[in-house]
Amino acid sequence: MSAYLITNLKVTNPEGFQAYRDVVAQTIADHGGEYVVADVDAIAVEGNPEHLAVVLKFPTMEALKGWYESPEYQAILSLRTDNSEGNLIFAEGLPSS
Fold it and tell me: Which domains does the chain have, with CATH numbers?
């Protein structure tokens, strides 16, 4: 079953965050993940979300966790956390019919 990373971020340091953007895509692809959504102009309809919305899809929850916990991602994680604020969740997709 597919698994998704869902995040909504406020970029606090665009230059520092760009360094993260420059390298993160390869780590995602290396673990079988893909971008489903990456919108810097997401529109808030309810609540108070920030402007950057991202959804990643991985083949399984194990693959998603494996990416997040990988040495490659852990080495660049601070580029995101030091340069943005927000939330990050992992969620399993619905079973295929």
Answer: 3-92 (3.30.70.100)
Query: Dihedral through CA 78, CA 82, CA 85, CA 87, nearest 10?
Result: 10
Q: What confidence tens digit (pLDDT) does each residue in 50-80 have?
A: 789 999 999 999 999 999 999 999 999 999 9
The angle formed by the CA atoms of residues 42, 45 and 87, to the nearest 5 degrees, is: 60
> What is the pTM assigned to this prediction?
0.92
Query: What is the structure's pLDDT at 27?
Result: 98
Q: At what angle do helices 71-81 and 61-69 cross, to 10 degrees?
A: 70
- How would residue 97 be classed by pLDDT, with cut points 50, 70 and 90? low
